[in-house]
Design goal:
This protein has 509 residues and is α/β, with parallel strands linked by helices. Helix content is 30%, strand content 19%. It has helices at 2-34, 64-72, 90-99, 129-135, 150-156, 196-210, 234-237, 276-306, 338-341, 367-375, 389-392, 468-485; strands at 39-45, 73-80, 83-84, 139-146, 159-165, 175-180, 184-185, 189-190, 217-222, 313-319, 345-348, 356-363, 402-408, 424-430, 433-440, 443-450.
Length: 509
């Protein structure tokens, strides 16, 4: 009887140990599942103005797949770029996105394009988010427009398929190259039959179909549309008859006063004065390009779902800058009006609230620290901008109460003596109000808008004495932000004093 009791005790002890072991294994599995890093899919469009997503209810453009992302994620309705120091706004915009730094503190080359030679590898101000995530266990992939030089691509990505290295190109016959660290760069090739967005969509879908590794991935899918030349595939062009295109409320035949870069390439694509018919065609072509690109985004999202990895993937949808297309009499993006500095910015993924729209002020280059926040990575010291994660997760209403916008003209080549005829802009947004200071030759022009009541920036309140206190407050805020961001602009000097010493042209080394 005693032996039997002992056997029962031993069996009970073994059972207890077995159950404890099972529970411990279950705990390990839970921890393993909780700490599994999410994948990242970054979808990037070129010259897509903020609000040009159907679900934003601002412009009548059809984007069913972007709408799906808005419905499934958190959208920033006040998302912007800081600005640029070159008419090729895309280049500094992408440099800021990649590094999380203000463009004043990223040294460009002599042509004011934000690229750098290979020997500069390792500088803290050149650390990019693909490079950082790659160093933290991510397999990285890129396709599409790369506007900051081969070294950034080589350092940041394990796989590159159909990369366009440049600022703008035709959308049929886009010259692209492939890259891997083992094989280097391929010979350039073209796909003359397919629209550019389809070429890049093919590359992204191919990566998702072929990826079998357990490591998390980061995909950077950078379309060249809807950047001009605006040549949408005919089926998408047909969706937007020219005569049906509504003119924007702030359509003007020409800008009301002389400003920087008013006769550069972007602006002379149409003659002056602008006509309603000409602008309607531009809008039609632009919307066709956006919808054609949306179709390719749909293909990529489907491939992600089919891969079984969608539930553990953070998706970011963004654009690199806006575009005027007839607003304020302008066509391009070389200004600081809402139409040119606003961009789409949407986050979708695990634990990100669905169908949420926030008015919190956000910069495009907040993406780097925000991806760190969403994935639990420490934000590098080189990053100068803000993590939007508290806003996304509902822990904070905002991460900033004001923001700076800046644009300086630059001739697109080495310094020239007549550069002081080009001009620039500085602007500040705080609360409902936005102050724009424009410099051209010896003239300064001030504009004050109530963005909440006047989103089209039509009613200049600068001469209204009722807003004197608002103006004074915004000027002080603008001067504070200029100092904090490393901007060398001086609002008391001609051309902001930026060309007094061309060797220091508003950049810090």
């Amino acid at each position: 009887m005693s032996n039997r009791k002992n056997l029962i005790k031993i069996f009970a002890l073994l059972l207890l140990v077995s159950l404890s072991s099972c529970k411990e294994n279950e705990k390990k599995e839970v921890v393993k599942e909780e700490t599994k890093k999410p994948n990242i899919l970054f979808l990037f469009t070129d010259d897509q103005r903020g609000g040009t997503i159907g679900a934003m209810d601002k412009y009548n453009v059809q984007t069913p797949n972007m709408d799906q992302l808005v419905d499934n994620g958190t959208s920033f309705t006040n998302s912007y770029i800081l600005g640029a120091t070159t008419a090729a706004v895309c280049s500094p915009s992408r440099a800021m996105l990649m590094t999380g730094r203000h463009y004043f503190n990223i040294e460009p080359n002599v042509y004011a394009q934000f690229a750098f030679p290979k020997e500069e590898k390792g500088q803290s101000d050149k650390l990019t988010f693909p490079e950082y995530f790659k160093a933290n266990g991510y397999k990285t992939f890129a396709t599409g427009k790369q506007h900051n030089g081969e070294p950034w691509v080589e350092r940041g990505f394990d796989y590159v398929k159909s990369a366009f290295l440049g600022g703008m190109t035709t959308h049929y016959g886009t010259k692209v190259k492939d890259y891997t660290p083992e094989t280097g760069w391929s010979t350039p090739y073209k796909d003359t039959e397919k629209f550019s967005s389809e070429v890049f969509g093919d590359a992204a879908v191919g990566f998702l179909n072929d990826y079998k590794k357990e490591d998390p991935f980061l995909m950077y899918v950078a379309f060249t549309a809807p950047h001009d030349p605006r040549t949408p595939p005919q089926e998408f062009k047909d969706m937007y008859p020219n005569e049906d295109m509504a003119l924007p409320e702030n359509f003007m035949s020409q800008h009301p006063f002389e400003i920087a870069d008013e006769k550069i390439r972007d602006e002379v694509l149409l003659p002056f004065p602008r006509t309603p018919e000409a602008i309607q065609k531009e809008i039609s072509d632009y919307y066709g390009m956006i919808t054609a690109t949306d179709a390719q985004i749909g293909r990529v999202l489907k491939a992600l779902k089919d891969s079984g990895k969608a539930d553990n993937t953070i998706i970011v949808l963004a654009g690199d800058n806006g575009l005027a297309l007839g607003q304020h009499g302008l066509l391009g993006k070389q200004n600081v009006y809402e139409h040119s500095v606003s961009v789409p910015l949407v986050f979708v993924g695990p634990n990100i609230p669905k169908n949420k729209k926030t008015a919190a002020l956000a910069y495009l280059h907040d993406v780097f620290p925000t991806l760190c926040g969403l994935t639990g990575l420490e934000i590098p010291e080189s990053v100068q901008t803000e993590d939007l994660t508290p806003v996304i997760e509902g822990d904070a209403k905002e991460v900033r109460t004001s923001m700076l916008y800046a644009y300086n003209s630059w001739p697109g080549e080495a310094f020239k003596p007549n550069i002081n005829n080009h001009g620039g802009h500085r602007a500040v947004r705080k609360g409902e109000f936005k102050l724009i200071v424009s410099s051209k030759n010896d003239n300064y022009t001030y504009q004050l808008f109530n963005i909440k009541n006047d989103p089209w920036e039509l009613i200049n309140l600068i001469e209204d004495e009722n807003y004197n206190n608002v103006k004074e407050d915004l000027i002080l805020e603008l001067e504070k932000l200029i100092k904090e961001t490393g901007d060398l602009a001086d609002l008391t000097k001609k051309e902001f004093g930026l060309f007094d010493h061309p060797e220091d042209y508003n950049f810090k080394k």
